[in-house]
Amino acid sequence: MIEQYEISLAVAADAAAIAELSRDTIERGLPWSWTSRRVARSIRDRSTNVVVARRARGLLGFAIMKYEEEEAHLLLLAVHAAQRRKGIGSALLAWLEATVAVAGIGVVKLETRASNQDGRLFYRRHGFEDVGLQEGYYQGVEDAMQMCKDLRRPR
């Protein structure tokens, strides 16, 4: 059975659930920085999209992307552990990449924990390439792999 969900822009009422999912999945083992207040600021920021996947029972996952003149920066992407490998992360990423294309931006960048092999494989499957290692990126605790996708290049 395929469970249906919808992807839409986040609203202020989503900030706490997004912050909790970030704390529990992305920021695990680090001081919590993506608090509900910070997420709410991103929701209000005109140069940022905060997108959520949800169904009636609640939030399944989210992503936050910041747009600049020439590139977009995927700041966060997370899916609840019980909902992984169901296409939700891919759908969130596809939604954001479509938005980037409409905005005329050709490059998406991101960082992921260097030790996050599943995350790195997920992004590689979606056309991202490793472009560098940034030591101590995560609050001096862990290194980050910087990844990039050129949307202008044919796949």
What does this protein look like?
With 155 residues, this protein is an alpha+beta fold. 29% of the residues lie in helices and 37% in strands. It has four helices and seven strands. It has helices spanning 15-26, 36-44, 88-102, 117-125, and strands at residues 6-9, 48-55, 58-67, 71-79, 107-113, 129-138, 142-150. The chain has a seven-stranded mixed β-sheet, sandwiched between helices. Helix 1 (15-26) packs across helix 2. The mean pLDDT is 92.
Secondary structure elements and pairings:
Elements: E1 6-9, H1 15-26, H2 36-44, E2 48-55, E3 58-67, E4 71-79, H3 88-102, E5 107-113, H4 117-125, E6 129-138, E7 142-150
Parallel strand pairs: 4-5
Antiparallel strand pairs: 1-2, 2-3, 3-4, 5-7, 6-7
Major β-sheet profile: 7 strands, mixed
Query: Overall pLDDT, averaged?
Result: 92
SS content category: alpha+beta
Strand order of the largest sheet: 1-2-3-4-5-7-6
Strand content: 35-45%
DSSP strand count = 7
Low-confidence stretches: none
Q: Give the radius of gyration.
A: 15 Å
Our measurement of the CA-to-CA distance between the termini, rounded to an integer number of angstroms, reads: 31 Å
Count of helices?
Answer: 4
N-to-C order of helices and strands: EHHEEEHEHEE
Helix content: 25-40%
Query: What characteristic shape results from the CA principal axes?
Result: globular
